[in-house]
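Final paragraph of the annual report: two paired records, presented back to back.
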Amino acid sequence: MNELDAAFAKLKAEGRTALIPFITVGDPDLGATLDILEALEQAGADVVELGVPYSDPLADGPVIQRASERALRHGITIASCIRTAAQARERGISLPFVLFTYYNPVLQMGVEGFLQEVKAAGISGLIIPDLPFEESEEMLELADAVNIKLIPLVAPTSSGRISRILDRARGFIYCVSSLGVTGERTSFHTGVDEFIASVKAQTDLPVAVGFGISSREQVERFAKLCDGAVVGSAIVRKIEDSLPLLESPDTKSQGLLQIRDFVAQLKL
């Protein structure tokens, strides 16, 4: 077990569902990211996805794309994202971290060196949306060697591949609730409940649901079906709305309070 496994085991014992916020590291800057992580911990988050800003995203909708653009303008790289996780640990932030990154930055760092840096920074898991299951064997073996969980994305369209993906899954299963890219939604893919139930029936790992969850009501809806709810675009949008406050030392605390309160009301 690592910190991620321990968090889900504790939640299961308590009969609670994990709240998993996603943020883009470096939006609006690295210092603010550290402050936001503290706010998320105060709000009751159980796990945090640290999004590495990327110029050509596969799965990100417009809200997260804008956040990536803001971060990239400040020169944020995958290495600086990993360092930020390490700095969060130095601050005493104990939340399990999952790094959400595309594969090209990993290749540029070198897979083994990347995983060593991730481990040293106190990151527990990885989500790499453009790394196909069929090409993930080397990454999985190397991640296992340093006890980093390679977390798979499973979509309703995964159909016949689902059982093979689950057999090699680690940490938790990330079920995609809607087809397309990330973003806030008022409705979800037809048959999503049956899809989640099918996935849960085939694995002993925790199952979390993401893509489109943006309100307490939606968290409550999926909490009845799964072990965790991932909220991304809605939180990134709240950060975006708070930018005028976050960018001034005189009002930064107000901006952080707005973010903390938004996330706190999502927590069941």
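The closing record of the year follows.
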Amino acid sequence: MSEMLASKPEHDADLDTYRANVRRWLEANTPAGWEQTLPFADDDEVAEFFENWARTLHSAGLLVAHWPERFGGAGASVAQQLILQEEMTRANAPRPRYLAISLGHAAATLMEHGTPEQQKLLDGILAGDIWCQGFSEPGAGSDLASLRTRARREGDVYVVNGQKIWSSMGLYAKWGLLLARTDAEAPKHRGISMFILDMQSPGVEVRPIRQATGAKEFAEVFLTDVRIPADRLIGAENNGWRIAQTTLSTERYSQMIELQEGLRSLVAQLLSQANASGVSADSASRLELARFAGEVEVFGLMNDRVLGQLAEGQDPGAAGSVLKLQFSQILQRLTEFGVQTNGLNAHIDPQRKNDISYTSGDWMLDHIRSWTWTIAGGTSEIQRNIIGERLLGLPREPK
């Protein structure tokens, strides 16, 4: 499978072969019944499951098919990535969600800005190492450059003190990307550095944040005199803000193919349930379902255009903000419609311990969780500002 993925198809027949091979492997290797058991498993069991599944996917060349070959990927084309996500959805195969930051944000930062020694940590990611981000703080979320966590150079180490919040997968992470202020006198965007943080370091305390769904995806991270070796500084000192843009832009694009397929899956579930329950007999409901199908198709076309620009080496600019805003709005309305049209069954709390997907089909929990997309990765208000200023040319918001 790895050898097959490494090839660059030039014709539709090559892509058909690729799809057939991926489909065959997923049919043979997708864990049976995982979506029924995993949401109720203990934290350690879930983390172990995703680590093992990541290794299994990587052994087949499916975990990081899009990575450059020199880093262990297959250099898959955009067309191959689309096929892979379509077939993952078709097979109901688990995505390695606990590795989302590892495979996207952390990997992109290490590949582009890491030293050769730092890039060796990519091997750990391929083996299932979980990463988190230490970016947001209680007083620095959307205005991330106002962060107050301090890193003071002492010989061969930096001594770090501060607090981070909303660190996805922080409870399970082995490593973290950490932003800290290294020059208090510099303008706020210019005095920040990025570090690789060993989450087991003395002085690191992780406290889980239990969400409305009952899961503990997020965590607070308290840093008290944490000593980070100077060779774990990524890039130059005080250049962390520019480096962070790699991570944040990756967050806009890396998941969009998967999310596109998730929306299509939700529409298919709604159509099936509406036909079974008789909801589709109502003209207003049929119109709403048709509207959802059309919006998801348009989202997919926009996503394809952005991915095509990336494949050609172009910078899509603020298009990622459009996709992120569009996805969050469709997801909210889709899940709300699922709650409204599936009766009392949609309101029963299944007592899940873990959120395995944004589109699980548990309509109430999916709807509650959909609101995180209006906040995480930049609030909807921030996305609208970016779209207005960078795409529409509107005046910048007063400071």
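The radius of gyration is 21 Å. This concludes the annual technical report; the extension proposal builds directly on these records.
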